[in-house]
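Subject: design request, 224 residues
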């Protein structure tokens, strides 16, 4: 079965229709790129899929449960236990060390400090940023910060990772490295990835592309 399914998603902001019909499904372990020009509705789609923004109509179903029918408490519990997030700018907490940042989602889920730290360091090692564990985000490079953000996204063992332009603030070499490590890490845990990008080079890491144009999201089946 599918892990995440969208049917008839629509969302308007005042007179602006951001999303006008999104129908597709994502299977466990699949890396799916959501592509399209700026303003086409990619971020709105991602926010609706992740249960951050409620659509005006349509449904999102995650693992057989209708996300769009849940209340805020149920949705945020689901996000914290099942989803991981990576944004364009790492959005690391500047006052915490990189290891504390990577451990944060586990701490918020009530995991004791020592176990959370051990899991964070394990992911930081796999993402080749263990050496910055005691540094603050302001003391590391952009590439290192994004790899810490990927460690943070993976630390809870999510089934689904949402990545919104995760390499948008990086040069191409660091961007490629982040994509390589992100997709390797996701595949090693069979997590699916929804990757929003406008760069073909980044989308090349996906199994499949969904193209968004003027709010329409269209599934382009591609040979893997
Ligand atoms: P993309 O991620 O592809 O750049 P967005 O989903 O951000 O596209 O935006 C789609 C359309 O919806 C754009 O016209 C944008 O200006 C509009 N939009 C997005 N978010 C808001 C908002 N919070 N308020 C008003 N308009 C918005
Ligand atoms: P990466 O390839 O991960 O982006 P770099 O080669 O850019 O790393 O950086 C190498 C070293 O320089 C790192 O140990 C990092 O701490 C430091 N560094 C790089 N950029 C910055 C920055 N903007 N601010 C502080 N330190 C930085």
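Subject: RE: design request

Done. Sequence follows.
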């Amino acid at each position: 079965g599918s892990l995440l399914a969208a049917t008839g998603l629509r969302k308007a902001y005042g007179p602006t229709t951001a999303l006008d019909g999104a129908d597709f499904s994502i299977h466990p372990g699949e890396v799916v790129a959501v592509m399209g020009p700026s303003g086409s509705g990619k971020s709105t789609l991602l926010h609706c899929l992740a249960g951050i923004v409620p659509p005006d109509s349509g449904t999102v179903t995650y693992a057989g449960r209708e996300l769009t029918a849940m209340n805020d408490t149920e949705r945020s519990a689901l996000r914290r236990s099942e989803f991981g997030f990576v944004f364009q700018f790492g959005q690391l907490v500047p006052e915490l060390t990189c290891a504390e940042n990577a451990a944060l989602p586990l701490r918020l889920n009530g995991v004791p400090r020592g176990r959370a730290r051990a899991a964070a360091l394990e992911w930081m090692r796999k993402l080749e940023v263990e050496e910055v564990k005691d540094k603050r985000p302001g003391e590391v490079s952009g590439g290192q910060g994004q790899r810490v953000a990927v460690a943070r996204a993976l630390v809870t063992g999510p089934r689904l990772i949402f990545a919104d332009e995760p390499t948008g603030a990086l040069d191409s070499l660091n961007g490629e490295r982040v994509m390589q490590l992100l997709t390797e890490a996701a595949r090693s845990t069979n997590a699916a990835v929804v990757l929003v990008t406008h760069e073909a080079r980044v989308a090349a890491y996906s199994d499949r592309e969904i193209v968004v144009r003027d709010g329409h999201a269209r599934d382009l089946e591609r040979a893997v």
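The helical segments are 42-49, 72-82, 98-108, 113-126, 142-154, 172-189, 200-203.
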